[in-house]
Amino acid sequence: MPKLKVVTFGCQANELDSARIAGILAREGYTLTEDEAEADLVILNGCSIREKAEQKLFSRLGTLQALKAENPRLRLGVAGCLAQREGETLLRRFPYLDFVVGNGEHLAEIPQLLSIAPGRPAVAASEPVGLFPEDADIHRHSRIRAWVGIMEGCDNFCTFCVVPFTRGRERSRYPDDILHEVVRLRGAGYREITLLGQTVNSYGKKLDPPVPFAELLRRINVAVGPAMRVRFTTSYPPDVTPALAEAMAALPSVCEHIHLPVQTGSTRTLAHMKRTYTREDYLEKVAMLRAAVPDLAITTDIIVGFPGETDVDFAETLSLMEEVGFDGCFAFKFSPRSGTPAVDLPDQAPEPVKAARLSRVLELQRALSLQRNRAVVGRVVEVLVDRGLSKRDSGLAAGRTRQNKIVHFQGGELEEGQLVNVEITEATSHHLKGVLIASS
Ligand code: SAH
Ligand code: SF4
Ligand code: F3S
Asked: Distance from the CA of 386 to the center of ligand 1, in angstroms?
């Protein structure tokens, strides 16, 4: 049987696509391997969000070229957002590639691309307009947690971002198809699903008739019952509605966590980014969510060193972080991407300024996370076990709270996928520690 290795370079959507690629190729007889040396086919599933992500893939290609020189049977493909963005130019730059395949419906074209005789590199990377085919298999790693794609693409065109160019226009899956998948996952023993979309809460606007995201959550909640946790990511602040806040408050399966990228605390910089909201708008959304869901954890993304960001703008990012008290934050140095408007904006920040601001953000976030985590000490929380403990194991079990906080805890023999109650006894900025008090 031929062997396949898929390497994921990007976000959760990219990881889900890797699982889809593995599912498509399993039907063609491929089994997965971790070892490049024994693979017949290696697919690098690329990401273009920042320059570093692209560079990682390019350097990996260098290693694979050497491997291919030793093993001429090896076939190499590049997929994902990077393939979508670069298309043909990848074949010119890396002539030893066998194929380049973009996002969305293109994934299903991989078997066809492979059937084209070796030595005739092929490309399928026109702008994706469809979704992944409903009848295709998804080869998931975890047996308890699953990503579920509900929408693709983005129409927002933030001035720094490649996603609208790599994933095409915003389009949503039919609710019945989603419900069908979710019910199947529950039947297969999954305990947690995370609904995925580049702007997940913009779901359903273009469906006929439109289905608001809050309505989809309600239907999913009914379909999965209380035995399953439901998460969603990534949310776009302007599309956080009172209906979403109410749904999060009312639906027992929906976890008390939202990832809500703010990018910057400066209204001026937000306008340069074309984010379509102000600092005050963002704070209002946070206040509305917190009023509805008192235990809500809020995490965010921040970009530092956006063109034109002054010390005053940056100070506003820090003050917004404190004002919200984020539970966690992914922070990035602005990375100019060709083809996006931000490349041409004046006052690009020098590297040392970006580096210094990034450390300030990370340092502040460490303090905020610690503060937020300490507030949980003394409480009993529900934990979904993702690393059980065998009898001989002297270590700690691990899992996540509904707020998505990592917990390491002492306790009895546990299995992956169990829901247990843990009393939190200690907190660090990175995780919680506790003791098992009862399992259910
Ligand atoms: N759709 C999501 C974000 C998807 S991209 C949203 O709108 O919030 C994930 C994160 O990567 C973004 O939130 C942003 O913080 C970061 N990012 C995107 N483009 C970037 C760039 N050119 N440079 C640095 N960070 C970037
Ligand atoms: Fe990119 Fe998100 Fe903006 Fe869309 S909303 S352009 S995915 S940052
Ligand atoms: Fe990267 Fe594409 Fe995700 S650019 S972050 S893999 S949507």
From this structure: 28
